[in-house]
Design brief:
Layout (H helix, E strand, L loop, with lengths): L3 H12 L24 E2 L2 E2 L3 E2 L10 H4 L5 H8 L8 H10 L3 E4 L10 H21 L4 E3 L8 H15 L3 E4 L14 H10 L2 E4 L19 H4 L1 H15 L2 H4 L4 E4 L6 H12 L3 H7 L14 E4 L5 H11 L4 E2 L13 H4 L6 H15 L5
Parallel strand pairs: 3-4, 4-5, 6-7, 7-8, 8-9, 9-10
Antiparallel strand pairs: 1-2
Helix pairs in contact: 1-5, 5-6, 6-7
């Protein structure tokens, strides 16, 4: 494996910026002869950016083989569509996605410090190589060993400053520990200092996705548990004061922010009822719902137009970004946004790419 200095020389220049050309126009529902769908609104080409896609680096097996994480690796590695390869570009071309942010769902939070360092450093180098090969189609997001916050801060800084990454994916908790714990403040401080965005996605966690009541039919650990994990994370970050201590944090939450984004009125109401919750709320700088207008962003995975309309009303058009959950099969293609009758062309452009162009600092 190359050392960091050698690797930085090879990839830093190529990974530092993304440029998307506007040449070639086609109707929003068409694919040109080459097979790439190019989306237009009002006759003008727009850039479509996907925040919610999962990649995986299978070569990391050489690091985790024989360790306690080998079984988890094998579970993650079973979804081979996440591996780097031409199928990603073929999918993006077919769907009309110009740029994908490479967010790996954390699976290494149980690793000790040395193993976690080696896993994340290797994954970041391989991700940067992938971006270098396709600099106009992907942006990298740094994998970080969040269970060791100072190490995670170091990995994030290296990823952003040396590899050109635009932020990092994080889980909804770390081995049962809430991310609002002051233990994680060094990581939050580094995120704020670097002025990058985090993408939070749920992973297996006790009490939410692994709640014993979710056993049985319906895949409830996913359909209910995943949004619940995100709801719990965001609620803790609000009520424990993490977002107030770090007002520069920008966090984008998967699955439309779980349940909190569309039901934050209940949190606001609880703050106004007095009692212990009312007392706790007095320390907050704003109402719980207002953090969705400032520091919190959500993706567009709500599946129905009425759900999207409600989400826009709750968080505002500037805080919704496009997400697909690729390679997992959910009905959330760009036509879901393009056909939303209540959205203006300007609103559609913001959701499909405009908001992420700003958050991820993409040059167009």
């Amino acid at each position: 494996m190359p050392d960091r200095r050698e690797f930085m020389r090879n990839v830093a220049g190529a990974a530092a910026g993304v440029f998307v050309g506007g040449n070639g126009l086609a109707g929003a529902g068409q694919a040109p002869a080459g097979g790439r769908r190019r989306v237009t609104l009002g006759g003008r080409r727009i850039t479509v950016v996907d925040m919610h896609a999962h990649h995986f680096i299978p070569d990391v097996i050489d690091i985790v083989r024989g360790t306690p994480l080998e079984a988890e690796f094998k579970s993650q590695a079973a979804t081979k569509d996440r591996y780097p390869g031409p199928h990603w570009l073929q999918y993006m071309d077919r769907e009309g996605i110009d740029i994908t942010a490479l967010n790996m769902n954390p699976w290494w939070y149980a690793a000790d410090r040395d193993l976690a360092r080696r896993i994340c450093d290797f994954q970041n180098e391989k991700t940067a190589e992938w971006v270098k090969r396709n600099p106009d189609r992907f942006v990298g997001m740094a994998t970080c060993a969040l269970q060791h916050p100072d190490l995670a801060a170091e990995q994030l800084e290296y990823g952003v400053k040396k590899l050109g990454f635009r932020g990092a994916p994080i889980g909804g908790s770390v081995e049962g520990m809430e991310l609002s714990d002051r233990k994680f403040d060094p990581f939050w401080a580094k995120v704020q200092e670097l002025d990058v965005v985090l993408f939070t996605h749920p992973q297996a966690a006790p009490g939410t996705t692994q709640n014993p009541r979710f056993q049985g039919k319906g895949g409830l650990g996913n359909t209910i548990g995943n949004p619940l994990e995100t709801t719990t994370l965001l609620s803790h970050l609000i009520f424990e004061g993490t977002l107030d201590r770090f007002p520069g944090l920008k966090i984008c939450a998967a699955h439309a922010g779980g349940y909190l984004a569309s039901y934050s009125g209940r949190s606001d109401a609880a703050c106004g009822r007095g009692g212990s919750v009312g007392e706790e709320c007095r320390a907050l700088k704003r109402k719980p719902s207002e953090y969705f207008r400032t520091q919190l962003y959500v993706d567009s995975m709500v599946f129905r137009e009425n759900g999207l309309r409600h989400l826009v009303n709750e968080v505002g058009i500037d805080h919704i970004v496009y997400g697909t959950d690729y390679p997992f099969d959910w009905p959330v293609g760009i036509d879901f946004i393009l056909k939303a009758s209540f959205l203006s062309d300007g609103d559609k452009e913001k959701i499909l790419g405009g908001n992420l162009i700003k958050l991820l600092k993409i040059r167009t």
